[in-house]
Here is the input.
Amino acid sequence: MNPIDDSPRRRLLQTALVSLNGVIAEPLSWAGPYFGPGSAARSLEVLRQCEAMLMGRRTYEVFSRQWPAASGPYAQHINTMKKYVFSSTLDEAEWTNTTVVAADPAKAVAELKRTPGRDLIVYGHGRFGQTLCDAGLVDELSLTVVPVFAEGTTFYRPGSPAQAWELVSAGPGRDPQLVSLTYRPVRPE
Here is the structure.
């Protein structure tokens, strides 16, 4: 008889900004005018419940340039929290409390989820985020829909496996004109 493992597990939260036409690429170029104090406060709330941030190399390159020079509660928290960057091309990370992981992202993240601690967070939905979704590792997906049409990479990538998600919550975002959607994966019984 196998004992049931009822120990609490870390959740992996993924949060992304998405345009009306499903674009997730380069949100700094189109989401800025809509992302105000309400969204910033909500982002800090979510970040504070997480122990570590996970990211691919591209997100690391953007964030490691942006956040160390920033100030305020959000910048302070993101700069001091534990961060993991998954990359086979990056040798070392200069951003405080960042560890480079060259191992297979899905296996390494699955292992991180099995260790004790608070939730883990991924911002955006680039190649790294898609890999985690494809591997069934994302426990909660939060989308903030921004009322613009944009060009670029869309949320769904051709060739990715079909996945069912259940809507947990939907409503106005924390700032005017934004919509907030939260989903959890439908797991096979």
